[in-house]
Design goal:
The chain has 192 residues and is an all-beta fold. Helix content is 0%, strand content 59%. Strands 9, 10, 12, 14 and 15 form a five-stranded antiparallel β-sheet that branches.
Length: 192
């Protein structure tokens, strides 16, 4: 939501704002906000806000110029500023899989469970309010439970070892099948 603060001595009628962004990293989904009439020396908050979306893999420290044009029956005004986009940098290391529920021979075989373990480190240069880590396998004969782990207050340079996921292999898996796993991270600042 956006505040319109009329510091003048006259009311403003039919006030609306239009957002302009010219960036390959940002898509504007809603570029207009209607305020209506704003009385003198009052502040009015819009019912909705501008809606924008960033691309998934935006670079770190990209500066996006912002222009907001205000239009009313009394005249037009322009506000310019910029915003710097920051993306989380999460490093994964020390990935290993061990046999979970199975025949106990230490070899992961069809029909058995395997337990992944890996470390994640926040190298973003800033704290994250939350971080979700999702493990995905593109093979229909593999299920991950839980497939997503969520962490609150993941501070800069913090390292966590994750070993709470379980991967179940179907009996239909063939010895020698190549299983591809993906790790995705989501935070309040984006995903990778």
């Amino acid at each position: 939501k956006i505040d319109a603060n009329n510091v003048g001595s006259q009311s403003v009628q039919n006030l609306y704002a239009k957002l302009e962004l010219n960036s390959e990293y940002v898509t504007v989904l809603n570029d207009s906000i209607w305020f209506g009439d704003v009385e003198a020396n009052t502040n009015l908050q819009s019912e909705n806000g501008f809606d924008v979306s960033t691309i998934a893999n935006v670079a770190e420290n990209v500066t996006i110029p912002i222009t907001i044009n205000f239009f009313s029956d009394q005249g037009n005004w322009t506000y310019t500023n910029s915003v710097v986009l920051h993306t989380p940098t999460i490093n994964f290391s020390d990935l290993s899989f061990t046999e979970g529920i199975g025949n106990g021979n230490g070899i992961i075989e069809p029909g058995e469970e395997m337990l992944p373990s890996f470390k994640i480190t926040n190298n973003s240069g800033f704290d994250l309010e939350y971080l979700a880590v999702k493990l995905i396998c593109d093979n229909e004969n593999v299920s991950v439970s839980p497939d997503t782990l969520t962490f609150m207050n993941f501070t800069d340079e913090q390292e966590l070892t994750l070993n709470d996921m379980h991967v179940q292999l179907s009996d239909n898996i063939q010895i020698g099948d190549n299983l591809v796993f993906y790790l995705k991270t989501y935070s309040e600042r984006g995903y990778k």
